[in-house]
Design goal:
The protein is an alpha+beta fold. The protein has helices at residues 6-15, 17-23, 67-83, 104-120, 172-183, 198-205, 211-220, 233-244, 259-268, 272-278, 294-303, and strands spanning 28-30, 38-39, 45-55, 88-98, 124-132, 138-148, 162-166, 226-228, 246-251, 285-290, 309-316, 321-324, 330-332. The protein is globular, with a radius of gyration of 21 Å. The chain folds into 2 domains: 6-148, PurM-like, N-terminal domain (60s Ribosomal Protein L30, Chain: A), CATH 3.30.1330; 162-340, Phosphoribosyl-aminoimidazole Synthetase, Chain A, domain 2 (Alpha-Beta Complex). It binds adenosine-5'-triphosphate (ATP), thiamin phosphate and magnesium ion (3 copies). Residues 52, 58-61, 64, 77, 177, 230-231, 280-281, 338, 348 line the site of thiamin phosphate. Belongs to the thiamine-monophosphate kinase family.
């Protein structure tokens, strides 16, 4: 194994076969290699700009993700924010900070994952930055996307009378994380790998940002508010409620629970709903649609081969976010979720 050298790395990226193909992608005028990238936006479109960081021990450990997964998920989590705006991702920049002595093979594996995700979603990686760090490996991905002028979907536009929807199963990523931490061996080297947990591990290591669902929602013309699930369903519902000045009631019996999540939660003596509400990193979309348009939207999703679950309703501000439980009681939903600096509520963070 050889250690990384900054300029050798940039040459590798610039001359590498993946970047050579992606740099010639549509809209890339000047890609990796000059002081900055030059790209062309489509006429009549608005740009959507977002970045997300993943750092060792906070977002991944050797026992939870392989290097390819780290690259893939860093790109996927940033792409998910483009989906949450109803946009199409186009270009990406990658900032990589590594401790001295990091093996070249590690960087190559991370880039394999980055490029795998980028090419799946038609994204050209057009540049980035590389530094040493007196700390843990840190990866920041900036993604530039597009949407038709004035069509971006916001968190702040939910209205009383809307139905609340989710695009797929939630809670599986956090359950996958619990499984991986419980195994406590380098990711992929498990001796026991119960079949049911495969989907959970996949959900944690290879999340699928919902670009297609975001497009169906945007084109439907009826979607009101939209958000993606990075910190847990409860946290994302609170974000929509606060940004829109509304209250939200989730209905427990309407929230879909994947079989593998139910089975795994049982082995842990946990309620699957805890993973769903407070786990995070699902990168599904949640949002609102006027209740009268919900069925029509569900049909559009069905036609596209996608799932859309109505899981609650929006009401006037006053009660915050609540859960209508299966036992008939309506209880307030704590504003918990993954918070990077929340030692206090014990839901992660430092
Ligand atoms: N350090 C920062 N400086 C400027 N803006 C920031 C900073 N951190 C976050 N933001 C902005 O705050 C808003 C919310 O960011 P946040 O990271 O909570 O959302 P998110 O990316 O959807 O969630 P997550 O990071 O959990 O995936 C975004 O508009 C983001 O660009
Ligand atoms: C080793 C390890 N411990 C805990 C977690 C859980 N986790 C970390 S960050 C985050 C929220 C999303 O990140 P962000 O808000 O930065 O976008 C969650 C749920 C993990 N993935 N790996
Ligand atoms: Mg963020
Ligand atoms: Mg988001
Ligand atoms: Mg977060």
């Amino acid at each position: 194994m050889s250690s990384i050298d900054e300029f050798a790395l940039i040459r590798l990226l610039n001359g590498g076969k993946q970047s050579a193909t992606l740099v010639t992608a549509a809209g890339v005028i000047t890609g990796i290699g000059d002081d900055a990238a030059v790209v062309e936006a489509s006429p009549g479109s608005h740009l959507i700009l977002t970045c997300d960081t993943m750092t060792e021990h906070i977002h991944f450990k050797q026992v939870t993700m392989r290097d390819e997964d780290i690259g893939y998920k860093a790109m996927a989590s940033a792409v998910s924010d483009i989906a949450a705006m109803g946009g199409v991702p186009r270009f990406a920049l990658v900032a990589l900070s590594m401790p001295g002595g990091t093996a070249v093979e590690r960087v190559q594996a991370i880039y394999e994952g980055l490029y795998e995700c980028a090419s799946r979603y038609g994204i050209a990686i057009v540049g980035g930055d590389t530094t040493a760090i007196l700390g843990e490996l840190t990866l920041t991905v900036t993604v530039i996307g597009e949407t038709e002028q004035g069509k971006a979907k916001l968190r702040s536009t939910a209205q009383p009378g809307d139905a609340v929807f989710a695009t797929g199963y939630l809670g599986r990523s956090a359950a996958g994380l619990d499984f991986l931490l419980g195994q406590n061996v380098p990711s992929g080297e498990w001796t026991v790998f119960p079949e049911q947990t495969e989907a959970l591990v996949q959900a944690h290591c290879r999340p699928e940002p919902q670009i297609e669902a975001g497009q169906v929602l945007q084109r439907s013309g009826v979607c009101r508010a939209l958000n993606d699930v990075s910190d847990g369903l409860a946290s994302e519902m609170w974000e929509i409620a606060e940004a829109s000045g509304v209250g939200i009631d989730l209905i427990e019996e309407r929230i879909p629970i994947a079989d593998e999540l139910a089975a795994f939660a049982r082995t842990q003596g946990k309620d699957p709903l805890d993973y769903i509400l407070y786990g995070g990193e699902d990168y599904q979309l949640v949002g609102t649609v006027p209740a009268g348009n919900a069925i029509e939207l569900q049909m559009k999703f069905k036609e596209a081969g996608l799932a859309l679950h109505v899981i609650g309703y929006v009401h006037a501000e006053g009660q915050g976010v609540r859960m209508v439980q299966n036992n008939g009681y309506i209880v307030p939903l704590a504003k918990h979720g993954y918070n990077h600096f929340s030692g206090a509520d014990g839901k992660g963070g430092v």
